[in-house]
Amino acid sequence: MDAGLPIRAFFTTREGGVSAPPYDSLNLAVHVGDEPHAVATNRARVADAAGAPVTFLAAAHGIAVARVGAPGQSPPTADALVTSVAGVAVAAIAADCVPVLVHDDATGAVAAVHAGREGLFAGVIDAALAEMLDLRRAGAAHGRMRASIGPAICGLCYEVPADMRARVAGRHPAAFATTREGTAALDLPRAIEARLSELGVGEIVRVQECTAESPRLFSHRRDGVTGRFAGVAVCE
Ligand SMILES: [Zn+2]
Question: I need a labelling partner for 171 at 20 to 30 A (CA). Which of 17, 34, 52, 213 fits?
Answer without folding.
Answer: 213
